[in-house]
Amino acid sequence: MKINRHGRAKVLTQSEIQLIFSDGLDNGRDRALFGVCLFSACRIRECCTLFTQDIYTPKGNVRPRLVIRKANTKGKLATRSIPVIEDLRRLLTEYYPLAGEIYLFPGRSDGHISEDSAARILRVACQQVDIFGVSSHSFRRTALTQMSNAGIPLRVIQEISGHRNLEQLQRYLEVSDNQVLGAAASLAMLSPVASNGVELDTNQKLEIDSYYPL
After folding, report:
1. CA distance 173 to 178
2. Scanning 53, 94, 199, 212, which has its CA 20 to 30 A from the CA of 70?
3. Are 123 and 105 spatial neighbours (Cβ–Cβ below 8 Å)?
């Protein structure tokens, strides 16, 4: 867990995410800001530097895909195009920057909101709902871990995350104690006590499925 900017960013549960968005973040801009971080698994800098035209059409409609430009990515490796799912579309529809704003999330002066300002907003929101160990990177780690747990191939996740290689991506992924226990429970099929050809009994199957739900 991350404490005073040290350690790994916390991977959030669904209930924690709901609490942060419902009771912590108190305006449409902030919910859209961290909604983009969550539903595109992007880095906070990539989010802060998004252009309005990369999200909205000239008529103000949310585009089907958001574009993270190569120049704003870590290492400037490649431009990424990420589908906008319905949950993110709703957040972006509720929020729309003032007409003429170049950046999706403008700062107080010319330019975009800073990463430090975004981090402060999140810290205050998390303090409001008594959730600790969270940083702006938590949404990226949470999204990538969720996709991995859902069985999405790492190569596909890499297309969304923008990692240079799979080794870097794997460092982001959280492995829970329950998953480790479930992996150990799966070894019951190797038991020398059972007769050859005997399948796992119902209780054993339920135990493994509870750790690795579909």
Report:
1. 15
2. 94
3. no
For residues 166 and 56, give the distance between their C-alpha atoms in angstroms, rounded to a whole number: 32
Q: What is the 3-state secondary structure (H, E, C) of 127-189?
A: HHCCCCCCCCHHHHHHHHHHHHHCCCCHHHHHHHHCCCCHHHHHCCCCCCHHHHHHHHHHHHH
Per-residue pLDDT band at 207 (split at 50, 70, 90): low
Question: Domain containing 187: what range?
Answer: 177-211
Residue among 14, 5, 25 nearest 122 (CA): 25
pLDDT tens track for 151-204: 888 878 787 877 666 666 666 666 666 656 766 776 777 767 655 544 555 555
pLDDT in tens, 127-150: 999 999 999 989 988 988 888 888
Does residue 156 lie in a domain region?
A: no
35 close to 87: Cβ distance less than 8 angstroms: yes
Q: Are 46 and 113 within one domain?
A: yes
Q: Are 17 and 131 in contact (CB under 8 A)?
A: no
Q: pTM score, two decimals?
A: 0.75
Window from 66-70, 77-81, 132-136, 181-185 with minimum mean pLDDT:
181-185
